[in-house]
């Protein structure tokens, strides 16, 4: 079930877009004309990392409105799945999405099994590494993944990328997602207060670090909390080309009970678009992002490690020709 707030955001996007249908169709043609091109980027919950990242991308592009005539708005959404689907329907022109979701959508697997391969999905770049993060209350008795048995756990809303990762990890740990765990399907934004209020024992959130949601959860106003290691995932990593081993740097969350970095799995956070979006629009976005890399990196600590080389890692959909044009110009692609 898609939570109500999510539906409200979707309809807001629809309203905003309804008034911009004509200029947006203009984006698909090579005639740039005089009218501004309205594009929207889908992100995630406001306390995640996608939202500030999308905001930083939009600021870069809007600053050059005189040059490109592009007006980019930022939408808070349900996450990766929602963003990919909205980019495919044309409701959004750009979306931030986990690399596992990009892979699955392009190949028509997981949630895209019924709809089939999303062949018009295009990659722009990778941005940073995000990690499957499991946060549990100290008093919940959850020390290892198998302790999730019988516990109330938020695995994330239906439009999130988080949800699929949570279910994959639960299964890889030998638990039955339906019988063993009492799962909730709420947005990540709600997890911290739910945990502090004692309404859940733990929550999953696939996200870059540090981020506001986890800081709020670890602040421990009522309950102290810790991260649970996600280990024993070798087989899952082996059969999934997009997962890699990662570790949550514990110094980012000094109030969590853990003393050491927390091993887990991660994937790239990527920027996606559609083949239907004009080359010059994608070119402008790619160029502004990488020509201003220094300042872009400073907009969020999760972006600190971004390099032009990392930009091309972890992409499984074809790279959009507008982005390819820029990468060729700077010698990143032949
Ligand atoms: N990876 C999350 C998702 O796709 C979103 C993380 C974020 O908003 O930073 O659901």
Question: What brief labels describe this structure?
Answer:
334 residues; alpha/beta; D-Maltodextrin-Binding Protein, domain 2; ten-stranded mixed beta sheet; 13 helices; 10 strands; 36% helix; disordered N terminus; binds glutamic acid
Short description:
By secondary structure, the chain is an alpha/beta fold. The protein is built from 13 helices and ten strands. Helix 8 (188-196) runs parallel beside helix 9 (212-218).
What topology does this entry show?
Elements: H1 4-18, H2 21-27, E1 37-42, H3 50-63, H4 65-68, E2 70-75, H5 80-89, E3 94-98, H6 99-107, E4 121-137, E5 152-154, H7 162-172, E6 182-184, H8 188-196, E7 202-207, H9 212-218, E8 225-227, H10 234-239, E9 244-248, E10 262-274, H11 279-291, H12 293-297, H13 321-329
Parallel strand pairs: 1-2, 1-3, 5-6, 5-7
Antiparallel strand pairs: 3-10, 4-7, 4-8, 4-10, 9-10
Helix pairs in contact: 8-9, 11-13
The chain binds glutamic acid (GLU).
């Amino acid at each position: 079930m898609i939570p109500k707030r999510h539906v409200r955001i979707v309809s807001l996007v629809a309203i905003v877009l309804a008034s911009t249908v004509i200029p947006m169709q203009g984006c698909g043609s090579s005639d740039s004309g005089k009218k501004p091109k309205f594009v929207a980027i889908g992100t995630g919950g406001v306390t995640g990392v996608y939202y500030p990242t999308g905001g930083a991308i939009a600021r870069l592009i809007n600053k050059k409105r005189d040059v490109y005539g592009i007006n980019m708005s930022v939408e808070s959404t349900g996450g990766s799945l929602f963003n990919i689907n909205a980019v495919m329907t044309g409701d959004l022109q750009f979306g931030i999405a986990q690399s596992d979701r990009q892979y699955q959508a392009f190949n028509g697997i997981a949630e895209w099994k019924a709809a089939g391969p999303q062949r018009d999905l295009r990659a722009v770049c990778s941005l940073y590494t995000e990690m499957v993060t499991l946060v549990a209350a100290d008093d919940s008795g959850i020390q290892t993944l198998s302790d999730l048995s019988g516990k109330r756990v938020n695995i994330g809303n239906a439009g999130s990328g988080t949800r699929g990762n949570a279910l994959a990890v639960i299964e890889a740990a030998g638990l039955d997602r339906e019988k063993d765990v009492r799962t909730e399907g709420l947005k990540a934004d709600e997890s911290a207060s739910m945990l502090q209020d004692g309404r859940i024992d733990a929550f999953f959130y696939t996200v870059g670090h540090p981020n506001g949601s986890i800081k709020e959860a670890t602040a421990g106003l009522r309950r102290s909390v810790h991260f649970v290691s996600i280990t024993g995932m070798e087989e899952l990593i082996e059969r999934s080309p997009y997962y890699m081993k990662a570790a949550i740097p514990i110094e980012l969350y000094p109030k969590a009970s853990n003393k050491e970095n927390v091993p887990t799995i991660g994937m790239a956070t990527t920027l996606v678009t559609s083949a239907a979006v004009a080359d010059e629009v994608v070119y402008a976005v790619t160029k502004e992002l990488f020509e201003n890399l220094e300042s872009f990196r400073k907009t969020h600590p999760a972006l600190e490690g971004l390099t032009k080389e990392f930009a091309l890692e972890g992409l499984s959909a074809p790279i959009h020709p507008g982005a390819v044009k820029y990468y060729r110009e700077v010698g990143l692609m032949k």
